[in-house]
Specification:
single chain, mainly alpha, two-stranded parallel sheet, about 10% strand, globular, lipase activity, GLIP1-5/GLL25
């Protein structure tokens, strides 16, 4: 895709994405894609694959288990010390829940919970594999409000409201994921983590786009349909992607990625944590352990004034709650 950077990016964005910015903040070169096996991996490797999933048997992508297997097969490219000091960055699970919603139009609360539990159990198993290979520092951004993605709203036929099921499942996943990280910090000696509340960041920007410098958080820059939710190509890219939160139906623009990365890297505990932002995690000594008292403390530290997900489906109510709570973020200046 020819993007803001002036050349084809090879990504679903108009420019830089998460690992690019984080590498820049760390003062290292951009992290190379592992599939390009002739490049220098001394600064780390990016095992991410488009549309990667946690569960299932993919035809054109990889599961998390397969990605971790590739890491395990090649871990000796790095010393044990390097593997221990590295940060392992994760954002995965969106397509599991989007596919679930498509394939299960009729579902019970027990079925939804069981599926989320399967996803979290699989993530736990792979984290323990990486930990067993020396990994100690894990950074997670939780899942976005999936029902607010342009591709989901467009498919649902009502672009003014976010779709309930995907966002509910993302919220269930996010709570279970944070609980898992708290538990692993108790179980595994030296296990350290950072947890970025991506859900709330995107939620805010969808509802109050102009507050965060975007002209729209509803329509995508690239694509076709009522909100450009599908079929993005070089023939239908907008002229001003910086005005859009979403580049295509599922992915952020460079500007959206930049705002998120600043929050992930160095913002205060109301946006990221507990117990560390990514910059703190990077410099945290390996023998340091921060254990929160329980999951309730962890959830409270992540978002003290978090608004219930139900408010997301009533835009006017959501705007009012945000105003009443002063709900505005302050941006302070190995990937899977």
């Amino acid at each position: 895709m020819l993007g803001t950077v002036g050349e084809a990016t090879g990504r679903w964005s108009d420019g830089c994405i998460v690992p690019d910015y984080l590498a820049s903040f760390m003062g290292i070169p951009q992290i190379s894609l592992f599939l390009r096996n002739t490049v220098d991996f001394s600064h780390g490797a990016n095992f991410a694959i488009a549309n990667a999933i946690v569960l299932g048997s993919p035809l054109e992508t990889l599961t998390l288990s397969q990605q971790v297997m590739k890491f395990s097969e090649n871990k000796n490219k790095w010393t044990h010390q390097a593997r221990s000091e590295a940060i392992y960055l994760f954002y995965i699970g969106s397509d599991d829940y989007l596919n679930y919603g498509k394939n299960n139009p009729s579902h019970s609360d027990d079925q939804k919970k069981a599926f989320v539990d399967r996803v979290i159990t699989s993530i736990e198993a792979e984290l323990k594999v990486i930990y067993g290979s020396g990994g100690r520092k894990f950074a997670f951004q939780n899942l976005a409000p999936l029902g607010c993605l342009p591709v989901v709203k467009q498919a649902n036929g009502n672009v003014k409201e976010c779709v309930r099921l995907p966002s509910e499942m993302a919220e269930m996943h996010n709570k279970k994921l944070l609980q898992l990280l708290v538990e692993l910090s108790r179980q595994l000696s030296g296990f350290q983590y950072s947890f970025y509340d991506f859900f709330s960041s995107i939620q805010n920007r969808v509802i109050k786009s102009k507050t965060y410098t975007f002209e729209t958080g509803i329509a995508a820059c690239c694509g076709t349909g009522s909100v450009n939710g599908s079929s993005c190509s070089t023939n239908n890219v907008c002229a001003n992607p910086e005005d859009y939160l979403f580049f295509d139906g599922k992915h952020l623009t460079q500007e959206g990625n930049l705002q998120a990365r600043h929050l992930m890297w160095g913002s205060d505990p109301e946006v990221i944590g507990p117990p560390n932002n990514l910059r703190e995690l990077l410099f945290l000594p390996l023998d340091s352990t921060v254990i929160l008292a329980d999951i309730q403390e962890a959830m409270a530290a992540t978002r003290p004034s978090q608004i219930n997900v139900e408010s997301l489906y009533d835009i006017k109510k959501k705007e009012s709650e945000m105003e009443n709570n002063g709900f505005i973020e302050l941006i302070k200046l190995a990937h899977f």
